[in-house]
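Hello,

Our lab assistant flagged a job as stuck in the queue for most of the afternoon. It eventually completed. Since we weren't sure the result was trustworthy after the delay, we are filing this so someone can double-check. Below is the sequence as submitted and the structure that was eventually returned. Let us know if re-running is recommended.
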Amino acid sequence: MTFNSVEFLIFFPIVVLIYFIIPQRVKYIWLLVSSYYFYMSWNPKYAILIALSTVVTWLSGTLIGVIDKRYTAKHREGKRYKKWCVAGCAVMNLGILAFFKYYHFILSNITAVLGRVGIEVQIPVFDVLLPVGISFYTFQALSYTIDVYRGEMEPEKNLLKYALFVSFFPQLVAGPIERSKNLIRQIHESHYFDGERVTRGLLLMMWGFFKKLVIADRAAILVTEVYNNYINYTGLQIAVATVVFAVQIYCDFSGYSDIAIGAAQVMGFKLMDNFDSPYFARSVSEFWRRWHISLTTWFRDYVYIPLGGNRQGKWKKYRNIIVTFGLSGLWHGASWNYIVWGFLNGCYQVIGDLTQNMRHRMQHFFKIDTGCWSYRFFQGILTFLLVDFSWVFFRATSLKTALQMIAHGIRNFAPISMLDTSKIFGINTLALDEKDFFVLIMAVILLGIVDAVKRKTNIRTWILSQNMFFRYLLYYGIIFSVLVFGIYGPEFDASTFIYFQF
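-- returned structure --
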């Protein structure tokens, strides 16, 4: 079941209606049952994996709590036992993740290396599907155990409430990756119907549907055509498709996050923001503070800082950045193109830090006003180009394909290729017809305006402050736009969100 399916449009209102009717003491049980039903709609047997991860991490946290009561904080034996609990929990959870997501990648690379030295081996083949959302709920469950180990979270005594924390359906399969300190606390709170809160949540959900169905799925038509047949296109056309992919993946993933956060808000839960107008960033490091915030902060808190962060000198700081982003790339997919994508974004930040003093001297020498609009605009464009180039590795089916696309694009740039006098707009719209191309451009302009405005104004608060006629005109306008301009039909599979594969 996906958010943009008919099943969800039936499932969600029923869940919400019953949730607000039943007594407070059983609300969490209803949400737990609903969450498992939501997850099992993909493949019922994989519910065993999420249940196993839930029990293992809950027991680990409980055992750490018992050790804390038995030993003092500085007791050597107590520290060692707690470390073993965390290590055992991590090995089991990451082991399950590694088997389902990285088994064939690891062994195929070992086989390739051995083959180069004349050693032939046969890899046992397991016909398994990657469980939906396994990377997300594994990280969320692991963070709970680590937080309990650090003393930042008290062990949760109620297994069912903890199970809801791991499986809460709005953010189960593609985040945001919630922290136990935020979500478990809310599970213990009482939630009542609030008309304004529900309206805010539904508004955010509608905007998420607009981004997904009107922009992302329309952009996907162009991107898929060019990336699957790049040999037939020029370098400029590949570059245009890559820019469009930057829009596609942002609208696809942030659209999912908006629907998830809005759905949770309808029921009284506040999930963390996952995006903050990332394409307005003026540096790659700022981009990553604005993009997939829940994952970026997870790697910061549980990988980068434990490695030493920036506390052990400049070169170890750079090592930690590269390692963290390399692991982030691997988290996204079991393929070298994802790893290179992660390393590339890490290298951007290292190079930016290394050249910082030189850039400051140049700015001083040439008397550049770094506060003026044109300079900030230039920084934003440069950041977007760097991030957009890295998207080639993310979108391509393999590292080899990504490198071949780049080489083909450089050899065959051909700027004139985007002109087509047979088109009304005078531009080659690639795989889109003129109507869809025009709708895409208009929708992206609207997206840019909204992202710019919401940095200074709470748009939903502003909407709710307007008179009833204007509000309902806007509500119906968004619904009408999604229904009329959204991508539907058997000729295009609009059901899958990109981040479901991770």
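-- support follow-up --
The delay was a queue issue, not a problem with the job. The result is valid. The chain has a mean pLDDT of 87. The two ends are 16 Å apart (CA to CA).
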